[in-house]
Amino acid sequence: QVQLVESGGGVVQPGRSLRLSCAASGFPFRSYAMHWVRQAPGKGLQWVAVIRYDGSDKYYADSVKGRFTISRDNSKSTLYLEMNSLRVEDTAVYYCAREKASSVLSDAVDVWGQGTLVTVSS
Amino acid sequence: EIVLTQSPATLSLSPGERATLSCRASQSISNYLVWYQQKPGQAPRLLIYDTSNRATGIPARFSGSGSGTDFTLTISSLEPEDFAVYYCQQRSVWPLTFGGGTKVEIK
């Protein structure tokens, strides 16, 4: 079945780096744009970043631009989020998500992972 | 960036009642408005895309309407499983943005 599984979360000190991964299965990963969305504890959803199916376009939320990098390895069906210069306010559950339609960018997302918790604390 | 304002923050209703949730955008987003449902401890679920199109498997009691800056999600008759938080999202302009959410709780 279609599945997304995030990993790489944990506790990290402010200013440090962390890389999240999202392993996809059950669909042609190379054909779909992918997103990262986060949710701080007890708060709402915040969109973080998107990457086109072929990696040629990337967009970021203003709050993470210049610090976070989204990437993908289509040969491994894996999405990544490299997070540098982490701040306390980056503490959240990070979800990866797949767009509903293939070969487009900025569609609604219809498949979500279970999320991985990133805690930034000294 | 486009700001989405959802109202009310909390809606207290009984099963069988009609729920009307609002989402207002700070500028026109045409019909590029999406609704998600989220239950505690779960990932969000796609309900409605492009204002009024139900996602696969979504019951007909969920409907969406609106255009430009004002949008509505209606649940015609609340079922016990519908009590959750609902988020709107715009996909018209980068960066994508979500509204703050409306919690539909049991009265």
Structural class of chain A: mainly beta
pLDDT averaged over residues of chain A: 97
Largest inter-chain contact set: A-B, 22 and 24 residues
Q: Spell the H/E element sequence of chain A.
A: EEEEEEEEEEE
User: What is the terminal separation of chain B in angstroms?
Assistant: 35 Å
What is the chains' assembly state?
heterodimer
Shape of chain B: globular
Give the strand content of chain B. Answer: over 45%
Helix content of chain A: under 10%
* Radius of gyration of chain B from CA coordinates: 13 Å
Let me know the average pLDDT of chain B.
97
**Tally of DSSP β-strands of chain A:** 11
Low-confidence runs of at least 5 consecutive residues of chain B: none
Total strand count of chain B, please?
11
Helical/strand content category of chain B: mainly beta
For the largest beta-sheet of chain B, the strand count, sense and barrel status come to: 7 strands, mixed
Distance between the termini of chain A: 40 Å
